[in-house]
Amino acid sequence: MLDLFIQVRFLDIIDILLVAIIFYEIYKLVKGTVAFNIFMGIFIIFVVWLVVKSLKMELLGSILGQLFGVGVIAIIIVFQQEVRRFLLLLGSRYRANKRFSLGNLFSNQFKLASEASMHDIVDACSQMSENRTGALIVLARESELRDYAETGENLDAEISTELLKSIFFKNSPLHDGAAIISHNRIKAARCILPISQKLEISPVLGLRHRAALGISEQTDAFVIVVSEESGHISMASNGELMEDISTDELFKILETSHK
User: Fold this and answer.
1) What is the spatial distance between Cα 254 and Cα 259, in angstroms, rounded to a whole number?
2) What is the C-alpha separation between 244 and 225, in angstroms, rounded?
3) What is the DSSP letter of 106?
């Protein structure tokens, strides 16, 4: 006879909640990407494997078990970007919730230096928006983006409105690519960024917006985009794009991010 009385421990409830949270975070990372269908296929096979194990079907359970054992490496290869984003998400939340750290000890100095340059960045974006000059500005946060900065021309210059405008001037040799700002300095220009693979991106958006989404998916950076066609200002963060924001909204976002 089947035992109809199932004993559920408190640890079992915690176990289920933790698994649910992990799967939800993974779902958010792969939602809207080509990898989503692969993830759903793997998830279905995993559920079937659990059912097979509970029914004690030894042969099929052994085959599926071996498939998952070897498939872990394949999953890491296929979901390389998603795994990187997931680990970055965990690390960012840990550092954000950590009250006592070396980063927090020096955070006030960093805030003051950043606030001194916010007006220059916003003013540059405002003027480029009026002139419909395309721009792609990456603001590094916890990650310094050194790998991406090395793909462009090293500048290591002070932030100023005129310098940002000159970088993205149409006839400038540095305008084609992204400018990376880190530690309150323009580290590099004409940098190459990864392109987002999301399927639901509007076809109206160009490569600058896709690059902004791509770098925001893989890092914790804030990315400002000025559209060459419309002059609209957009902001990308955590794989999400806020389109057509005002300069006041842009300044508030930058100011809030450093509090």
Assistant:
1) 9
2) 10
3) T
What global pTM score does this model have?
Answer: 0.65
Domain ranges of the chain: 10-97, 105-257
Among 60-74, 192-206, 242-256, top mean pLDDT goes to 242-256
> From residue 250, how far is each of 65, 76, 163 by CA, in Å?
51, 36, 19
Q: Is 137 helix (H, G, I), strand (E, B) or coil?
A: strand
The amino acid occupying position 70 is V
The vertex-237 CA angle with 38 and 191, nearest 5°, equals: 90
Query: Is 148 in a helix, a strand, or coil?
Result: helix
Asked if pLDDT for residue 35 goes beyond 70, the answer is no
Instruction: Using DSSP, state whether 189 is helix, strand or coil.
Output: strand
- Residues β-bridged to residue 235: 224, 242
Contact present, 223 and 215 (Cβ < 8 Å): yes
Are 231 and 126 a contacting pair, CB within 8 Å?
Answer: no
Question: In this structure, which topology does domain 105-257 adopt according to CATH?
Answer: YojJ-like (1 (3.40.1700)
Report which residue type is found at 90.
L
Spell out a b/e string for 108-131, using b for 16 or more CB atoms within 10 Å of the CB, else e: eeeeeebeebbebbbbbbbbbbee
Residues in the chain: 259
Query: Three-state SS for 226?
Result: strand
Q: What SS3 string covers 157-175?
A: EECCHHHHHHHCCCCCCCC
Q: For residues 130 and 231, is the Cβ–Cβ distance under 8 A? A: yes
Grade residue 109 by pLDDT with cuts at 50, 70 and 90.
very low
As a whole number, mean pLDDT of residues 154-178 equals 92
Tokens standing for 212? 């902004």
